[in-house]
Design goal:
By secondary structure, the protein is an alpha+beta fold. The chain has three helices and two strands; from the N terminus they run αββαα. It is rod-shaped and about 85 Å long. The termini are far apart.
């Protein structure tokens, strides 16, 4: 899995050398800018696919339809009250 991410250039292996009494090399795997972007996109996709997001989005759309219907009926309501 890590090899595939490295081949896609989403992860990179880094070798860091520290100075001092002897050469000390630390190997680590780091996230590339492309990997960070892909991770943010994946996080956004998962958020939008969640049940809570879909319910909230549906409720918001229904509320906008109700507001539109109220605005369309507003002149008739004002005439009836006059």
């Amino acid at each position: 899995m890590v090899k595939e991410l490295m081949d896609a250039r989403l992860l990179s292996d880094a070798r860091v050398t520290f100075g001092g009494s002897g050469p000390s090399i630390v190997d680590s795997i780091v996230l590339t800018p492309a990997g960070a972007s892909a991770l943010a996109e994946w996080s956004e996709f998962l958020r939008k696919e969640s049940f809570g997001y879909k319910i909230g989005d549906t409720i918001l759309r229904v509320l906008w339809v109700l507001v539109g219907a109220l605005c369309a009926l507003l002149p008739d309501i004002i005439r009836a009250l006059s």
